[in-house]
Amino acid sequence: MEVDKTSLRFISWNIALVTQSQQAPDTWTQTRAVAAITRLLEANPSDVIALQEVPASWNPDIAGYLTLEAETTSHSGRIITLLSKKVVASNQIVTCPVHGSAVLVDIGGLVTVANVHLCPGPFHQERYAQLSDIVETNQNSHLLVVGDTNTRGKELAAIETLGLVTVRPPSPTLDWRRNRFHRDRPNIPRISSYYTRAFTTANIAVSGMAVWNQPTKTGDGTEFFLSDHFALSGTATTH
Fold this sequence. Notes:
This protein is of the alpha+beta class and 239 residues long. It has one domain: Deoxyribonuclease I, Chain A, CATH 3.60.10.10. The chain has helices at 30-42, 85-90, 124-137, 156-160, and strands at 7-14, 48-54, 65-67, 72-73, 78-84, 93-98, 102-107, 111-117, 143-148, 165-167, 174-175, 192-193, 196-200, 204-212, 216-217, 223-224, 231-238. The strands form 4 sheets. Strands 1, 2, 3, 4, 5, 14 and 17 form a 7-stranded mixed sheet that branches.
C-alpha cells in the first residue's frame, strides 16, 4: 500500500524475543516461529510495521518492506521499524532513535510514526518522561505513537497533557487469561490489558483498529500464540 496525502496503515507487534510459547510443541523452533511471523506480516499489507522485543539474532526480512537502519534497544530487545518499499520510493524518510524507548520515522514531512517500547511495571513517571522526550524530539505537527506502551488506564489523563489523544484498541492487546504463553511461570499474573495502543496528535484519526488475537495452528492441530502480546493494526488519517 502506498501512503497518500492522508492515510497510513500500520501494524505494531511486540514479538516477545521470538521465544517459544510454553503451549507450543517441542518441535516448534525459533526458525519456525520467525517463518510464521514473516508469513503473517506479508499476508497483511501495511505501510509501517513497528516491532518491539526483536532479538539480536533476527534481522527481519519481510517481502515488500525495507528494514530501517535506525533502531534502539529498550529494556527488552530491539525496536525495529519496517516501511513498505512503495512508501520509501515516494517519500523522503527521516529517522531519529530516542535512546531506549522509541524510533521516530518522519514520512515525507506528512506524519511522524514513533515506534515505542516504554518501560514496564509501576513506573508511570518514567513512562511519562519517555513520552515527553518523544513529543519534544518530534519535528512534525502530525505524530502517531504506536507500540507496547505498558501504560495503565490511570496514566492516560497525565499523558494527554502532552498534547496526545489516547486511542484504545477494540479489545485487550495482552490477555494472559487466554494466552498461556508463560503457562509454567507461577509469578506471571493472569491479566488482560491494553499495553499495545496508540497515541496521536489531535489532527490524526485512527480507524479500523484490529487486534490479532487468534492462535497459530500446527499440522497436528495444536494451537498456541506466537507472542505473549497480540499484534495491533489500524489506519491513521491526517486532517
